[in-house]
Amino acid sequence: MTARLTVVMAPDSFKGTATAVDAAAALAVGWHAVRPSDEVMLAPMADGGEGTIDTIAAAVPGARRMPERVQGPVGRGHDGLVDAEWLLLPGTWPGEGPTGVVELAAASGITHLDPLAPMAAHTRGFGQLIERALEAGVDRLLLAIGGSASTDGGTGALAALGARFLDDAGVEVRPGGAGLRDIERADLSALLPLPAGGAVVLGDVTNPLLGEKGAAAVFGPQKGATPAQMAELDAGLRRLSGVLSVDPETPGAGAAGGTGFALLAWGAAMTPGAAAVADAIGLADSIRSADVVITGEGRFDDQSSGGKVPSRVLALADTGGAAAMLVAGRIDADTHGFAASVSLSDLAGGTDAALADPLRWLRAAGELLAGAL
């Protein structure tokens, strides 16, 4: 008789093709097709980017989605509004008071823009979501900052929380990256305080604010910036660094177009997103009770070992005594430590085929890994 196993499905999203929730479900269907008696637990993961709210909402009992209407990444006043949400976690988790999970991409994400607006886009809507969470009385904030559309140094977010960024005439600068070059001083006297339990920034990059590895140079092109605009944005971020008391070389300061820098100036703490989300959903406890854990992401490469979801899940599996398996759209790095691995591109016979129907190939990967036992 085949032993009954406990299996945890803990993939990240497969960017642009499958959410973490859908990927976990597809892997489970494939696994059960071969081993129907096994207990399969779904624990979709995230690293602080898009989908973080969905991941935590799926894992935490009593989590409530809080819909809001806020500013999108461009526009002011009543134009440019978008429907967004933040997540309210009950007071029993993880401490005494309720926790608010706010995802930058929900209000200020790049998916809201077509065409892109590298100089005009801002993070004001993200700040408005934080403000709504504070108004609701949360004791702690988890701030997921992946998927940003802007390089405004987080000035939009801080402005929504009461900060004022002023030019040499004492007038507030325009929103977005274009306004950074006019900043002469920052008035933080009306800035809302952190909640009692603090704020934790969930990120998956360690870039500084400025220079060749900074926000404008590395991430500006993804947001539509030309080389000339990248230089202007970096110069503007340098002006911002002169009016906020945070070291611009702090790892993660350049995350989300410099939003990491602004949140550090507010007093938030920076932490690797995958580790924080794993803690949020109790993944370590789930893995300790499991025999097998399957993780994955769209592309497994040399950066995956630097705090991404697969590396975090592998570490928890090593500690918890479970066998870790990997599924990725493409595998471009050594998979040492994983008991087995599957490339969807190889399985489908090519990258285009895998991208055309990722859930089909995720189910096939689940079957293949179950059969390998």
From TrEMBL:
It comes from the Bacteria. One of its GO terms (molecular function) is glycerate kinase activity. One of its GO terms (biological process) is organic acid phosphorylation. Gene3D superfamilies: Glycerate kinase, domain 1, Glycerate kinase, domain 2. Keywords: Kinase, Transferase. It holds the Pfam family Gly_kinase. SUPFAM superfamilies: Glycerate kinase I. The keyword Signal does not apply. PANTHER family: GLYCERATE KINASE (PTHR21599:SF0). Belongs to the glycerate kinase type-1 family. This is Glycerate kinase. It comes from Marisediminicola antarctica. The lineage of its organism: Bacteria, Bacillati, Actinomycetota, Actinomycetes, Micrococcales.
